[in-house]
Amino acid sequence: MTKNNNELVFLPLGGSNEIGMNLNCYGFGPEHDRQWILVDVGVTFGDLTTPGIEVIVPDPKFLEGENILGIILTHAHEDHIGALGWLWDKIKAPLYATPFTAFLIREKLREKGIEDFHLTEVPLGGKVNLGPFEVDYITITHSIPEPNGLAIKTPLGTVLHTGDWKIDPDPITGAATDISAITALGDEGVLAMVCDSTNVFVDGHAGSEADVKVALTQVIAGLKGRVAVACFASNVARMDSVIRAAEANGRSVCLVGRSMHRMSAAAKSVGLMAGIQEFVSEGEAAKMKDKDVLYLCTGSQGEPRAALSRIADGNHPLVKLGAGDSCVFSSRVIPGNEIGIRSLQNRLSDLGVEIHTEKDHPGIHVSGHPCRDELKEMYAWARPKIAVPTHGERRHLQKHAALAAEIGVPEQVTPRNGDMVRLAPGKPEIIDEVPAGRLYVDGGVIVPEASDALRERRHAAHNGMLFVSFALNPKNQLASYVDVRGLGLAFEDEDSISDQLEKLCDIVEKAVQKLSREERDDDLTVETTVARVLKKAAQNVWGRRPIVETIILRL
Length: 555
Fold this sequence. Notes:
Blueprint: E1 7-14, E2 23-29, E3 35-41, E4 44-45, E5 55-58, E6 67-72, H1 78-81, H2 84-91, E7 95-97, H3 99-111, E8 119-121, E9 127-130, E10 133-139, E11 148-154, E12 157-161, H4 179-188, E13 192-196, H5 209-221, E14 227-230, H6 236-248, E15 252-256, H7 258-269, H8 282-287, E16 293-297, H9 307-312, E17 326-329, H10 338-350, E18 354-356, H11 372-382, E19 386-390, H12 394-406, E20 411-412, E21 419-424, E22 429-433, E23 438-442, E24 445-448, H13 452-463, E25 465-472, E26 483-487, H14 494-514, H15 517-520, H16 523-542, E27 547-554
Parallel strand pairs: 3-6, 6-7, 7-8, 12-13, 13-19, 14-16, 14-17, 15-16, 17-18, 19-20, 25-27
Antiparallel strand pairs: 1-2, 1-21, 2-3, 4-5, 5-23, 9-10, 10-11, 11-12, 21-22, 23-24, 25-26
Helix pairs in contact: 3-7, 4-11, 5-6, 14-16
């Protein structure tokens, strides 16, 4: 590499123009011979627009065949490490993480049957050297143990990649933000800061987890009967707060949900959750007095298969809630989950369970991301020449860029996923656009975003389906009655079902008989004809064009 051709570029393949699914790439070298490091490889989750899809991962197509020196993980949230197992074959490279994150990565990869990986545990405040990149880990605070900012030092300048963060002066887990390290970076000179934008619309500060513990202790003190608390299992600080609040009120804690057990094991492996009592099993809790137990549950976002939904549906084998019991939601509502959460809370209410949320008890939840005043403090410490907002939707990134300009940051760039930003040399600008999209995990298989299966599923969900079957003899004549059945189509009553389907059968029979013998010899021609006439008929009856599946039996 000749020095004059070297460039330092930033390339988000996930996490820009969206919250979640983080995959950030830093490249150094000339255009034809760049070396890369990746920062985080996360997932996002499906919603009502992706029926049957629970997990979505970034498309790493651009990275295949590139020189990837290493993958650095900032912390252990799913939107930062969750795609490693799904994408491993496409982006294999040495992994670097602090001990808590490393514990969960090992478990995640081995669950996928992946054993051939090299994972280096980096101590808190440690350093990694990868080719032209020298990466220093900087302690920050967030809602999970061992969150790290990264000082990525290169011959063309230093980038501060914040990861997810907030300023918590009294964190429950780990040390407070290392302000001196960030300030020292600013003194040395920070070329660019790639920074979390989640709460850029919120004034003030996010608040301290220590205050949440106090608020939860007070709320739980006023509750009678059995108490369930729902929060994110990945928020280990919140788990710790709930557990200690329960113990302060004489309640033993029962973990409900696989993720709760996994996260508590990871926390204990690095010395967290010290001094708490042993958890009681679900069987033991079922035999205890109501006032003596607290269930710490997964499912705060209304996830249908999570522990709290099973309890609300009465399907949990050991955990039951009813009249006189309470459920505390110590979490925020993630946009898109409103319907699921409301449904869950209504089902619990039907059981007689009293619901408690942040609206009723301000202080039982705080965000793990920086509000506007915290962003201003971070910029004051780091003093970057370039602001690169990330971890946000378009409106977040633009608002963040405006804030950076307002407080005097000379340059701002707001890339979308796939935009390659040249940070140095010269003026920062988007110099290329590379393939960037999403891959869906569909039944354990990775499929493209525009897969036929999902397209058909969406179509069927909105328009229903019609199934047609009949037999043709060796002369290509109808040798049976036509049978038409519907799925997902509305009828007034049973009589109208029979009448309408009989009319559709007649339409199909006439359409098939109009075909020539030679045309009936070709299944595709017959199927196309049947689909055309049925969709037209369905449009007239229901105002919909259903999927038509035709089964031809040839005698």
